[in-house]
Structures are given as structure tokens and as C-alpha cells.
């Protein structure tokens, strides 16, 4: 992962001396793309993991800024959790998902006509999409060391809202994913769209966690009141 970042951030180092601004503007993006494609070919899973980690970090920062947090008020542990979700979860899992999906439609069903992207989108939205949304909530809950019943409640609370939110974005985006983008570049395209989606996902996860904590506090307060009332009643009776 570190080697990938170094490769991308040091492209053309030492070559730009004497270049004009227009040459720098033109060459660096092209050479970075060539560098990215090289490391993608050599280390596909690691490259996609780093890409997703970057996107999930950016998305969570955008989500927190949208919620009204200033740069100094950003929850850095929350950002770290999102980074790890992209690095350890979304990047590697997406690599295998797109590979398995492509082989299933091409080699098993032999659906290779232009219209085959339609069932691919449907399968994605009914299986992979909900699976990853719930995995994301599970992953964050584990990192926050939440009790299993709290994590399960969060998953149940977010499943339907996230599916509904996803239907507003992903079907159209995945027409491009499965209809136009080559297999090896699909996650890169999806990750660009993910900046918007992760903002939604992170916001939903944070609000759900806040609701869960509030309900837990209310339950604890209720238990305290009940215990106090019972104690008072017992004392009065005695």
C-alpha cells in the first residue's frame, strides 16, 4: 500500500524542471494515469484497497462538513474507521465481486450482448449493494466495540433507508459501470461515484449510532427511575 502511494505521488519527480505550466498540467495527469494502471496491473487488490480507503476518507470528511463540523471539530476516529472500512473491506471485496459477477454472466450464463448490463445492475442492487451496506455498519460497530445487539439494531434500522437512498443513485451509475467501463477499471469509476454515496452512508451510520445511543440512555434512565421507585415503595411499606 505504501509503495502504491509513493509511486503515484512521485511521478515525474525531477522531470518537471523547465516544463511550462501547460506541460505540467498535461503531463502529470497522463503520467499518473499510466503509473496507476501499472500498479493496478501489478497489485490489483492492494491498489483498489488504497483507492477505496482514500474515497471513504474523503466521503466521511464531506459528510461531517455537511453536518456542520469545522475542520478542527472533525471526528478523527470516525474518519479513521471509514478509512479502514474502505481499505480492509470495500476495496478487496469489490475486487472479488466484480470479478465473480463478470465470470457468472460471461462464462456461466453466456450473456454477453449489449443488454446484459441490465441484469448485472439488478443483481448488484439486490445482492451486493445491501450486503456491503450492512457489512459497513457491522465493520464500524466492531471498530467502535459496540455490543452485538446494538450493531444488529443499527443494521435493521439502516437497511431499508440505505436501499431507498441507493436506488436514487446507483442504478444509473451502474449502467455506466457494467455497460461502458472495462472490468479492471470498474472500482475506480465506482469509487468516484462513491464520494457522494459514502457521504450519505457515513451520515446515515452516524445518525443511526446517535439514535441508538439516545435510546440506550433513555432505557438506562428508565431502569434507574424504576429502581428508585421500587426502593421508595419498599421503604414506605416497611
Compact summary:
With 238 residues, the protein is mainly alpha-helical. The protein is 82% helix and 0% strand.
Structural summary, described in words:
The protein is mainly α. The chain is built from 8 helices and no strands. The longest helix is centred in the C-terminal third of the chain and has 52 residues, at 186-237. The N and C termini lie far apart (70 Å). Residues 226-238 have low confidence and may be disordered.
Q: What are its keywords?
A:
238 residues; mainly alpha; 8 helices; disordered C terminus
* Overall pLDDT level: 81
* Radius of gyration, whole Å: 23 Å
Global morphology: globular
Count of runs of 4 or more consecutive helical residues: 8
Kindly state the percentage of residues in helix.
over 70%
- Low-pLDDT segments: 226-238
Strand content: under 5%
Kindly report how far apart the N and C termini lie: 70 Å
Layout: helices, strands, pairs:
Elements: H1 2-9, H2 21-42, H3 44-66, H4 76-108, H5 117-143, H6 148-167, H7 170-179, H8 186-237
Helix pairs in contact: 1-2, 2-3, 3-4, 3-8, 4-5, 5-6, 5-7, 6-8, 7-8
Amino acid at each position: 500500500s505504501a509503495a502504491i502511494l509513493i509511486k503515484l505521488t512521485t511521478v515525474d519527480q525531477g522531470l518537471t524542471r523547465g516544463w511550462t505550466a501547460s506541460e505540467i498540467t498535461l503531463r502529470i495527469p497522463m503520467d499518473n494515469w499510466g503509473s496507476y494502471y501499472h500498479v493496478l496491473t501489478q497489485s490489483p487488490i492492494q491498489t483498489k484497497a488504497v483507492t477505496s480507503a482514500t474515497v471513504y476518507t474523503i466521503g466521511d470528511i464531506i459528510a461531517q462538513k455537511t453536518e456542520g463540523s469545522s475542520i478542527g471539530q472533525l471526528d478523527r476516529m470516525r474518519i479513521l474507521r471509514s478509512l479502514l472500512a474502505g481499505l480492509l473491506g470495500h476495496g478487496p471485496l469489490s475486487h472479488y465481486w466484480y470479478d465473480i459477477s463478470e465470470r457468472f454472466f460471461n462464462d456461466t450464463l453466456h450473456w454477453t450482448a449489449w443488454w446484459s448490463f441490465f441484469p448485472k445492475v439488478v443483481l448488484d442492487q439486490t445482492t451486493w449493494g445491501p450486503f456491503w451496506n450492512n457489512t459497513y455498519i457491522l465493520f464500524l460497530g466492531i471498530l467502535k466495540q459496540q455490543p452485538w445487539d446494538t450493531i444488529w439494531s443499527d443494521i435493521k434500522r439502516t437497511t431499508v433507508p440505505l436501499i431507498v437512498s441507493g436506488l436514487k443513485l446507483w442504478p444509473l451509475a451502474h449502467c455506466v459501470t457494467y455497460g461502458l467501463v472495462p472490468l479492471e477499471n470498474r472500482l475506480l469509476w465506482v469509487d468516484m461515484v462513491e464520494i457522494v454515496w459514502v457521504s450519505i452512508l457515513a451520515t446515515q451510520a452516524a445518525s443511526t449510532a446517535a439514535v441508538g445511543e439516545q435510546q440506550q440512555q433513555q432505557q438506562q434512565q428508565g431502569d434507574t427511575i424504576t429502581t428508585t421507585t421500587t426502593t421508595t415503595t419498599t421503604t414506605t411499606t416497611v
